[in-house]
Write a structure and sequence with these properties.
The chain is of the alpha/beta class. It contains ten helices and ten strands.
Length: 233
Amino acid sequence: MTELGCQNISAYLMELDESDDVRKKCELLLTVSISRFFRDREFWQSLENKILPDLINKNLEKINVWSAGCACGDEVYSFKIVWDDLKNSVGHLPKLELIATDMNSDYLDIARAGIYSSSSLKELTKEFQTRYFKKKKGKKLFEINASLKKDVIWEIHHLLSDPPGSKFDIIFLRNNVLTYYEDLLKKKAFRKILDSLAPFGFLIIGSHESLPFETRKLTEIAPHPFVFRKIAE
């Protein structure tokens, strides 16, 4: 408001109505980037021990994953760590195509760099910290291994627009559209996202979120009330 010379909220609301650029900047300022690796630790254990092995056992040649609203990449690299660790128990892995999207280009730049503070790594085991991160000299920062940065497609994307693909085997939709959007926009965005999920694909939402409407297309996967699987169409 100070930059625009607005003396009160009414003046700022007028600027939002009249300028697409001002509206876009406001929306970006309202986005949230706070996250951490392996948030909801028990879920990530289920992902490695149950969900991903089930997908792999379907003899898929490729597994398509979309991290929607990926912020600074903590979730994306958490997935890559689990995927890499699966080599020890599963052996041969299908090809992985991982698309990570966010509307904030600054967040995507941070994600591409893959450098994080120690607080982001607090859920990681010491083994994983040692195996997958390198401490930046003289700083309390850690850079993820270059091997995990490979084969991630980072794209700017607004969740109200069409998804960046279709027939995703896994979609992460955690703590963004279902938390911050008003009901009408929430339902509009969610329908598009649901249509892009493959039959028998998994949808993961935030642990404190709920679906915006009832649907017979999804069934809840115990023990996590925020993990759903799409039934065959």
